[in-house]
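Protocol step 6 of 9: fold each sequence in the batch and record its structure tokens directly after the sequence line. For illustration, a two-sequence batch is reproduced in full.

Sequence one:
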Amino acid sequence: MKFQKPSNAGLALILLALVSLMFSFAYANVPLFKLFCARFGLNDAGKASGRGEMAPLMSSAAGNVLARSVNVKFMGVSGTGLPVRFGPSEPQVTAKIGKPIHLSYTFTNMGDDSVFFRAVHSITPMSAAREFQLIQCFCFEDQSLAPRETRVLPVYFALSPRFPTNVNEIVLNYSLFPRDPKDRSPVAAKEVN
């Protein structure tokens, strides 16, 4: 069986059909996306608000979610043999749901040698950990301190509007683990627990 080449007119017809199909899909994309969002309860999640419009406030049966406050406490511990003393600028803050919080941690190397470490964070209770949004943190990468050096590092976080309504207090805990400056692998899970 021999394959027959299509004529120029046939090829033009196929290309015209393909272009119209692509145009139709692009034209229908916005209504299809709105239908998808409505079907899965995304509340126009992909739609930016118009000029001058405020996004609607989220609410629940317990009232306005964004008006809630949660007490956030900060704790920390250094691993064995790590001569680093550290602490937050404030031992606790009252965070409004959805409003970003800026604070800092001060780290001091108490030893006469440089130290290289990784901070690993944990959040309790576990039910609230998923809705704690850590935006900027010294725990995202390894840190180093020269002998007797003091450094102030920022922490920037927010609590999601989906934050559990039955949780009024959470604890953000940091554990510092010594690291080898040549080893760029992630901290092993067994060291975290």
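Sequence two, same batch, same settings:
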Amino acid sequence: MLTLDHLVIAARTLDEGVDWCEATLGLRPTAGGQHVLMGTHNRVFDVSSTSFPRSYAEIIAVDPSLPAPAHARWFDLDDAELQQQLASGPQLVHWVARVDAIDATRAALLASGVDCGEVMQGERGALRWRITVRADGHRLLGGATPALIEWSGAHPTDALVTSGVRLEAMSDAGSSLTAVLATPRGRVRLDAPSPKA
């Protein structure tokens, strides 16, 4: 059983993502920063609930102020088709599962035929983690199969204020990813774009 760590919401630009968040969910997130290794930046906010403790949402976009990495960016952010889909607005694209032993979990998934990628080191400010990223940057099953993450020390929710948004339900069944959030704007359902044929 994999535990949800965070939802990934992609945007063409971070400003578009923040504006969408305010209009759709009723909050304007300010926490976040840059991922130099991937040439991206983000804003994050707490979505913890009884069913999904220590969970958050991440709005992520390519950071034009950073040099493009020599490898593919995570979450399909280099994919032309996804960028075209994001022209109609930010979208839920992926989820990340928190694990205690990322190497063993990755090996077990690989043995069952699921290649979630290589384990890479990540950091943002004081946060440190290890995460699986495929060499091609692609999300499996359109984001329904999660990336794996193992935190070292602090977790983002340790420093996040209560956002007023709670994750009520999430489904990755049938190769489609959906999330239902209770927000100041009411209940909001997010659906990931359909995976490529």
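Proceed to step 7 once all outputs are recorded. Observation for sequence two: The CA atoms of residues 104 and 110 lie 10 Å apart.
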